[in-house]
Amino acid sequence: MKTKMKLLKIMSALSLSVLLWSCTEEMLTPKTSNDNAEKTETERVVLLKTKLDYAAFNLIGTKFKTQVGGRSQAGVHRLSGLFKSKEEAGRIAEGWDTCALVTITENTDGTYTVILNFGDGCEDNGKFITGVVAFTGSETDTSGVFKIAFDKFSERGADEVVEDPSTVNGYYEASWNISLHNYEERFSTAFEVNYKSGGKETFAGEGELIGDLDGFVVTKYNFIGSNLKGDKYAAAVVNPLVFDFSCKGTTIFTEGTEGFEVNEQKSAIDFGDGKCDNIFTIFLEGITIIVDLDKLNS
């Protein structure tokens, strides 16, 4: 059951964060002037970005779990163990107890792929899931590669009615290696959300991070995207982004800055000086906007 819950958590983290692209203006303070309209666009995009970061980095990227030298040590990716061998992948997959059709293939490049095919949909742990999720990778004790790919994937509550349903296509892939004290990961990601009404949203990025038992630092992260509101955006890391594992309840970076461009409006995002909170500051052409996610989500 624990293995199944971990699998569902990983899938949900990625897919649901992508499906939460459109932060509505009602979530923000109502604005009327042109300058304030620009504020709304930038806030909307940055709020989306925080959801994606939490999914990609915190939930599947850097929770270290191996034992090295008899103590907890900077370890391997959360999916580690799945790609030790085809036999190990089969053993782990057997514990998933999922409604999906599970198949395992050995690829010519030495990787293994575990495919979960939910077809036109089935109920799994209170969720109605459709489409295909594929986990591909290989690993040794000190390095590995992995990829999580979605094909026409969707997830909703078993009894939930969605006004404009959507499906997700895309992937998150990375290569990683560990030393005695550190974990390094290089990643790329691209997602496309297609709505029944014809709308489409996109996101693509690449980056690098390093981590240890205390947290991780994103040293590179370049991305571009568009959403249903018509916003087009791009961003890159200016000062390294720090995520502190000791900050309980914090779902964003605690330090670092990013440079954003939203609909040709340039801005900077400052995550603070290390304090454990969910507050960040947007600097937009002379305007300062302080965003507290705890207040937005309350």
Task: Give an overview of the whole structure.
The model is unreliable at 1-6, 8-35 and 59-76 (pLDDT under 50). The strands form two sheets. The chain has a 13-stranded antiparallel beta sheet. The chain has a two-stranded antiparallel ribbon with strand order 1-2. It is built from four helices and 15 strands. With 298 residues, it is an alpha+beta fold. Helix 1 (2-19) packs antiparallel against helix 2. The chain is globular and about 55 Å long. The chain has one domain.
What characteristics describe this protein?
alpha+beta, 13-stranded antiparallel β-sheet, 19% helix, globular
Write the layout of secondary structure elements.
Blueprint: H1 2-19, H2 34-59, E1 67-68, E2 71-72, H3 86-94, E3 101-106, E4 112-124, E5 127-139, E6 143-157, E7 166-178, E8 183-195, E9 200-212, E10 215-226, E11 232-244, E12 255-262, E13 265-273, E14 279-284, E15 287-292, H4 293-296
Antiparallel strand pairs: 1-2, 3-4, 4-5, 5-6, 6-7, 7-8, 8-9, 9-10, 10-11, 11-12, 12-13, 13-14, 14-15
Helix pairs in contact: 1-2
